[in-house]
Amino acid sequence: GQVFSDTVNTGIYVMEPEVFDYVQADTSVDWSGDVFPQLMKDGKPIYGYIAEGYWEDVGTHESYVKAQADVLERKVDVDIDGFEISPGVWVAEGADVHPDAVLRGPLYIGDYAKIEAGAEIREHTVVGSNVVVKSGAFLHRAVVHDNVFVGAQSNLRGCVIGKNTDVMRAARIEDGAVIGDECLVGEESIIQGNVRVYPFKTIEAGAFVNTSVIWESRGQAHLFGTRGVSGILNVEITPELAVRLAGAYATTLKKGATVTTARDHSRGARALKRAVISALQASAIDVRDLENVPLPVARQQTARGSAGGIMIRTSPGVPDSVDIMFFDERGADLSQARQRKLDRVYARQEYRRAFPGEIGDLHFPSSVFDSYTGSLLRNVDTDGIADAGLKVVVDASNGSAGLVLPSLLGRLGVDALTINPGLDESRPTESAETRRAGLVRLGEIVSSARAAFGVRFDPVGERLSLVDERGRIIEDDRALLVMLDLVAAERRSGRVALPVTTTRVAEQVAAYHGTQVEWTTTSPDDLTRVGREDTTIFGGDGRGGFIVPEFSSVFDGAAAFVRLIGLVARTQLTLSQIDARIPRAHVLRRDLATPWAVKGLVMRRVVEAAGDRDVDITDGVRVVETDGRWVMVLPDPSEAVTHLWAEGPDDASAQVLLDEWAAVVDSAGD
């Protein structure tokens, strides 16, 4: 009712210096309430200018988003820096927009932004410079500032995202939300409408945020995951981070110590390894650089006189991500205690720096593959192979395993057909679909060649998949039982190291041959610990990882391959015959999103729900029913996820058990 004009004071003033004589020092004054009335009282000239152009007070979220939309609707006379590739769709110079991306203007894409196939960008969206929008992401009326990462399947509607922020896979940010600069919005998290997340905050994966995050972070920082330090290349894992990590690792070692470095055949790993080497040398550490080698070779070479090692590889199945893996002096993954020590040094940024005369040396050892294969063949039993006349097909999957195979197969004396031996720099890892297709093709070749079996290495030579003589794929969990049966039948004593999530059929197989199972946690570090003990004859994780203790206590695809050839040659049984004599297992798995804040409550609810039933706490909580069925609930150490396994006499009974305990886990979040 007090409005009597259709104009507004924009608060833009042009003044003569003497106006400031009307402003008292150290006193709060208001221009329109104090200074201008006094100027008018003194008869000083004051003028107004009525501008005819566009005006919008962008002091609120709604008006800020409206101003962006008005520019795109051409209601504002401004030059848009870019090319109008279709009506209302503006794309700046250097932007990479995939032809299969869906663009529905009006919208703007900034310079050097990258929009992947399958992404959908809708009306009134503004994408800043160097923004990455992954496949399946959906943006509508979103204003995204520079250098933002928008993960796959994420959903951004009517929100504002500050610069240098990472929005991870399947996150949802709703209308009216504002995310500040340099934040991390975790996978599958939900930011409700009108929530404000202030700069430099972390929202945990799976979180549901309905109030503003001002002081605290709704997340939990974990440096180490199940594969070392992992993240998206040049988003989460940058050269700067690699330098700080390597500096922290060097600080945990003595000056003058030697560290072995290695990488896979990807360009990203090559670039990061150079940063790591520089940081190590600058921290008074000598470096032995193996360059591109299989992961087991890196571990074995680390154990030959180094204080530790660092391997950089592409994350399995995730081509945009990398793993920075840290080894101890035995080539095994760092223990939990040493991970925490490295974490503390990194968090405090207490890095040691060398004096000029202490800068570390850089060496490139020679004959690495000959050294590895020589040691392998000296330690693993190869009796009977030469006389068996076996033919095998070996798929190197265009990875670094192909680098060691020529030396290995030549000295092993086996009739081997090697396929996909060359390195493919553009494919340092493979999807589940690609891997499956490769196994199908391997099976066809094995069958047509009448080979004894086929093996397929993963791209870094750590894991092994099997195909029997008929060309049928032996699934990884089944391959573990086949290898266990072969080893136990030959050794007739000793212990087998298996994670507690493995089917209890393994106990039947081991006991039948006079061996026993040593159950471990799901941590590779724990499996390695048991693998080092003298009485251990075998180990595996049911995902293609096999331990051959007489050679190494870590997963090694080549060692498993050599041992398998020897076992088959001496047993004179086919893989299908061995598989047929092992009972079927019925283990099902499910993952449930669980916010960090309720993980403790989840485990308490599980223990309470177990009641009088047998409970095994080797890792997580495993509840055993009176009829032998069991379920295991395990909170993930690095992600906002709870893992469940269940085993029964058939899939249906295992499914019922899984559903029952999934409801218990879900109830903790209600």
The coarse overall form would be elongated
Major sheet details = 8 strands, mixed
- Average pLDDT metric: 92
Please give the number of β-strands: 42
Structural class based on helices, strands and sheet pairing:
alpha/beta
Organism: Streptomyces halstedii
Domain Mannose-1-phosphate guanyltransferase C-terminal: 104-206
Protein name: Mannose-1-phosphate guanyltransferase
Keywords: Phosphoprotein
Summary keywords:
alpha/beta; elongated; 22% strand; 42 strands; 17 helices; 7-stranded parallel sheet; 8-stranded mixed sheet; 670 residues
Question: What secondary-structure arrangement, pairings included, does this model have?
Answer:
Blueprint: H1 31-41, H2 61-72, E1 83-86, E2 89-91, E3 96-97, E4 102-103, E5 107-109, E6 114-115, E7 120-121, E8 125-127, E9 132-133, E10 138-140, E11 143-144, E12 149-150, E13 155-157, E14 160-161, E15 166-167, E16 172-173, E17 178-179, E18 184-185, E19 190-191, E20 196-197, E21 202-203, E22 208-209, E23 229-232, H3 239-251, E24 258-263, H4 267-282, E25 286-292, H5 295-302, E26 308-314, E27 321-327, H6 336-348, E28 362-363, H7 368-379, H8 385-388, E29 391-395, H9 401-412, E30 415-419, H10 432-449, E31 453-457, E32 464-467, E33 473-474, H11 476-491, E34 495-499, H12 505-512, E35 516-520, H13 524-531, E36 536-540, E37 546-547, H14 557-571, H15 575-580, E38 587-593, H16 599-610, E39 614-616, E40 621-624, E41 630-635, E42 641-647, H17 651-667
Domain Nucleotidyl transferase: 5-73
InterPro entries: A-D-PHexomutase_a/b/a-I, A-D-PHexomutase_a/b/a-I/II/III, A-D-PHexomutase_a/b/a-II, A-D-PHexomutase_a/b/a-III, A-D-PHexomutase_C_sf, GMPPB_C, Mannose-1P_guanyltransferase, NTP_transferase_dom
Domain Mannose-1-phosphate guanyltransferase C-terminal: 104-206
